[in-house]
Amino acid sequence: MSAGAVPTDTGYVWHPGAELVQASNIKAFLDDLGVADYEALLARADADPAWFWAAVLRRLQFYRPYEQLVDESRGKPFARWCVGGTTNLVLNCIDRHRGTPTWQREALVWEGEGGNIVRWTYADLAAEVSRLAGGLASLGLQQGDVVGLFLPNIPQAVAAFLACAKIGLVALPLFSGFGVAALRDRLAAARAVALVTADASTRRGTVAPMKAVADEALQSLPALRHVVVVRHLGIELAWQPGRDHAYDELVAGRSDELPTLELPADAPLMLMYTSGTTGKPKGTVHTHIGFAAKMLLDLGIVMDLKASDRLLWMSDMGWLVGPMVAVGVPLAGATLVLAAGSPDYPDRGRMWRLIEQFEVSFLGLAPTTARSFIGSGGGDIERHDLSSLRICASTGEVWTPEAWHWTFDKVCRRQVPILNYSGGTEVGGGILCGTVLHPIKPCTLSRALPGMGAAVVDDQGRDVPRGVVGELVLRHPSIGLTRSLWHDDERYLDSYWSAMPGLWRHGDWAVIDADGYWSILGRSDDTLKIAGKRTGPSEIEALLAATGHVVESAVVGLPDAVKGQAVCCVVTLMPGTTLSADVRAALSKAVVDGLGTPFRPKFIVAVAELPKTRNMKIMRRVVRAACLGEDAGDLSSLVNPEAVAALRLELEQAGHRP
Asked: Which residue in 366, 363, 419, 420 sits closest to 387, CA to CA?
């Protein structure tokens, strides 16, 4: 990577107050362990991961204590956790609150696109989970069976996830916008035997059928025996007697207090397919104790989620954030604010209105969401009272400085910390995170999460000095890591463990600055090599955004006979801006001024939207394939596949297709 990839804005813009620090969950954790500070915790956890994870696990409940914390007899990649112990995610998320004041507090508040609101207490959530678990059991589903969850962002999606856990079924969350092929392929790969879905969802006021999509997908899946249907919108449906079951009828009259099944602590909880940034999506495997411990650490301890918080993190159950909040919020005894649809529909400032209306104190958002609000003029953010916020968390993409500062100024009012969070589906959460103990630097991540041995190394697996870019790796198996890939150990080893023996290679470029702050600089497989100099797309994209003309961009490298690769930029422009000769020249000049003449873009094209995954990551491999006129491969994870055809057309009209 070139030196320009290292962030140049190293000033602190936010400092934690003494009261916040003293009241924080991480400070209480440090005090309980008798550790002086976060740096000392990292050092001891890195030297003795078993000591650290045992301390985290003391905050969770077991039916039977584990006999061995971690078993690495098959090697680091296949570590087993809490051997001999038994537990259940539902024991920790719901049952532990029974008989406490939390039981009658709100667990969930939901708003639909039409403005209808549903409120569930913890007692309500427990009853719904028990009734649905009983209904699923009545269909003959047994421990270890895989159940697809193809649902919009509605309360029943949370209930279904927890109901599967309660009786030992393995949940398979699926993006609510999937088409037939994507849905069929994942259900087939997972060997699912049942599906919970809805009649339809609404997207920006338009009805989007879901059961009809499922019906078509299931034509070639005879092993999937049962479909449970939530009549969310009440539309007319085709019905297959014996296979299809109405959700309301299935749960009617069942016990509100079904016993939670005692399971081996490391029993599979969830299959979560990656977004497929390279190749076909991979089925990651997360367990009851692994996912609970990781969410307790990440959200509860490090990110300071408290029982008094009301959390809004608009997502879909088909992206890891959906299960994260469905588990992390009840673990903390907090309140989850759910909203179906988009952050800017039906009102353009819906996200800001939700914060004000429901007194949200913990907000999660992606940089892409911030950029979209910038592009639309802010969504009337100044009209809304956001004073309830105390934490803002972000994940999903690398920040551009302009989007970060806009969020800090407009959303956080320069008072609320942005806790940047980076990890992945395969990790079951984060590797790096901001904390309320550390001052904030724009676009950075304060520290590594403990117990994972996160490091930045060269291609030989050797630590690089601070300020030098390298590969992000883990030196220790983490309790949250996928246990393998579903029925594919060989691909698991090839994907994460084979490149640097003994190290988990995450696939990101990273750098640590002189003060110990981390920056993620993009995927290592997105690297550009221009005239012998390596760089990541994020630093070029930041230069484009800094001109004020660009909302967001995808920068890719294309073959060049002289330089090896040439820079090519696909951009979306600010409202009212066109790609005139002057704007094109300004964008090109910004890249040259920032990185040098060899990085002058070969071409710049403007599109209405960039191809993105369901978790709003820009798919640069798809952009590159379009620029080369090649097959883009698996597009099933795209939220906007129409953007690919539009990009190809724009390239052709501009004369840039090969």
From this structure: 363
pLDDT level of residue 97 (50, 70, 90 thresholds): very high
Structural tokens at position 358: 């429901």
CA 433/CA 449 separation, integer angstroms = 6
Report the relative pairing of strands 68-71 and 226-230 from DSSP bridges.
Answer: unpaired
- pTM value is 0.87
The rounded distance, in Å, linking the Cα atoms of 522 and 188 is: 32
Half-sphere exposure (Cβ direction) of 396: Cα atoms closer than 13 Å: 25
| 256 phi, psi to nearest 5 deg | -80, -5
- pLDDT tens track for 1-20: 332 333 444 589 999 999 99
- With beta carbons less than 8 A apart as the criterion, state whether 331 and 292 touch: yes
- Whole-number Å distance between alpha carbons of 414 and 13: 8
Burial of 118 (0-12, 13-18, 19+ CB in 10 A): middle
Structure tokens at 581: 């000769």
Q: What are the φ and ψ backbone dihedral angles of 379, each rounded to 5 degrees? A: 65, 40
Which residue type, as a one-letter code, is found at position 134? G
DSSP character for 35?
Answer: -
CB 609 within 8 A of CB 376: no
Region of residue 79 (phi > 0: left; psi between -120 and 50: alpha; otherwise: beta): beta
Domain edges within the chain: 124-264, 527-653
When pLDDT is averaged across residues 573-577 and rounded to a whole number, the result is 93
Nearest to 510 by CA among 593, 431, 451: 431
- Residue 283 identity (one-letter amino acid): G
Angle, vertex CA 428, rays to CA 425 and CA 434, nearest 5: 100
Assigned CATH topology for domain 124-264 = Rossmann fold (3.40.50)
Question: What angle separates helix 321-332 from helix 155-166, to the nearest 10 degrees?
Answer: 80
Q: Are the CB atoms for 598 and 531 separated by under 8 Å?
A: yes
Q: Rounded distance, CA 286 to CA 425, Å? A: 9
The domain over range 527-653 is classified in CATH as 3.30.300.30: yes
